[in-house]
C-alpha cells in the first residue's frame, strides 16, 4: 500500500497532530506500507523536498512555504501545485487527510486526487464552544469545502465516541464514521535516569500541568485550586498568552513556592518532570480540548490523571476507559481543590491507579494498536 498523508505540519514541529502522525508513521515500519507526507513549512524550516536521513520510515516528505496565517490557518498558495507533483511522482493508493487543514481542500480541485480514495482523520472541529470567535465568523465560508471533503471521503476517522456524537460537522456523515482512538509511542516519555529530579521538595503531592497557556486549557482554575491546598506542589509547563495574567495571580497570592510556571522546556526536562510527579492534571474547560494526548503520556509513564469532565470531549472517555484517575466539573475550582486534598491523602490509591493506567495504556492506547486499526481501514479501500 502507498499512503499519502496530507497534514498541517510535521516533526520536528510539536503539537498533538504532529506528534501523533510521527508516531503512527514509525509504527507502520515493517507493514509493507510506503508512506509520504505533504505538509507546511513552519518558520525556520526549509520548504521543498526534505532530507530523509533521520526519517527512514518515510519515502518522501515535502514541506510547502507558508506566506502568513489567517486564524491559525497557514496561507500556502503553493500547496495545490505541490500536491499535484506529489500525486504524480508518489502515485498513492490512498490519501489520508488530517483535519482541520484548509490546504487539504486542494484535493477537491485535483483530478488526480479525485481518482484516488481518501480518508478523513477528524482531529477536531473548527467551530464550537471555546474555539476562537473569529473562526465562527469565517466558518460559513469554510463549511461548504469541509462538507464536500466529507461527502467524497470513503471513511471518516474520529478519535473518541463522545467527540463524534457531539460534532455538528460530522452529524450528516455518521454512517461513514469510525472511532479509532489516538495512540502514543511510549518511547516518547523515556527519561535519562542519571539526571537529578526537578521536584526538589518532599512530602507534597507533586502535580504536573502541561499545555499552552491559553484560556480553554483552564490553568487559572488549577492555579486557584492549588493555592487552596498547601499539600500540593504544582508545576505548569508551557508558554502562551496567559503567562502574564497567571504570573500576576501568583504575585497577588504572595508568590508561593508551591507553584511554578516553568515556561516552555525541552522534551528531556518535560519527561523528567513527568517521571517524578505524582499526578497529571488536565483542567481544560471546553471541547477545544478534543482528546488530550498528555493523558496518554501520563498513562505511559504510569501516572494517574485528574481531568475536567467536559461534555463532548474525549478527555473523560479516555480516563473512564482506562480507569486512570479522577474527573471533576470543568472550571469548578472548589471541586478541584477538594479532589486534590483527597488525592494528597490517598497515597496507596494513587500508586494503584498509576499501575492500572500503565496497563490500560498498553491495552488501549499504544500506537501499535492505533496503527493496526488504521491499517485495517486502509486495506478496505486500497486496490
Structural summary, described in words:
GO terms for molecular function: glycosyltransferase activity. Residues 15-183 form the Glycosyltransferase subfamily 4-like N-terminal domain. This is Glycosyltransferase. InterPro entries: Glyco_trans_1 (IPR001296), Glyco_trans_4-like_N (IPR028098), Glycosyltransferase_grp1 (IPR050194). With 383 residues, the chain is of the alpha/beta class. Helix content is 38%, strand content 18%. The chain is built from 13 helices and 16 strands. The strands form three sheets. Strands 3-4-2-1-7-8-9-10 form an eight-stranded mixed β-sheet, sandwiched between helices. It has a six-stranded parallel β-sheet with strand order 13-12-11-14-15-16, sandwiched between helices. α4 (133-152) links the parallel β8 (118-122) and β9.
